[in-house]
């Protein structure tokens, strides 16, 4: 299966989840490594856009195309998510939920609904899982962010 990430070019080849470990995210607390990916480039860009301030968008961005195993994916249903999972900023309940799954289950990959487009999915990759060695970067493409996306 192919998934997509967008981020600073200098971190495009990093599959350790260090950025999420240092900063946390909607589905993880700080100190829990996680790789946020999406099922399409468009969703990855949209998720990135809603989570970044226009003044913080770097000049050097890249899409990373990652191949992940088709097995080891735990699909999370919307009804199993915390009731306030779409809240902005991300509530601690979603961080608790994701961190717990990343640390206490055998899940290599969590398939989770997008807060932006509920019928599309993000894939949280667990770099602490022993099988994370099977995550493979297929390609990295430079990307120039069109600021009209943020200005619309």
Measured between the Cα atoms of the first and last residue, the distance is: 32 Å
From the helix content, strand content and strand pairing, which structural class follows? alpha+beta
Radius of gyration from the alpha-carbon trace, in angstroms: 15 Å
Number of helices: 4
Q: Beta-strand level of the residues, as a percent range?
A: 25-35%
Shape: globular
Average of pLDDT:
94
Question: What oligomeric arrangement do these chains adopt?
Answer: single chain
The number of distinct structural domains comes to 1
In spatial order, strands of the major sheet run 2-6-5-4
Q: Could you spell the SSE succession in H and E letters?
A: EHEHEEHEEEH
Proportion of residues in helical segments: 10-25%
* Main pleated sheet: 4 strands, mixed
DSSP, total strands: 7
The residue ranges in which pLDDT falls below 50 over 5 or more consecutive positions are none
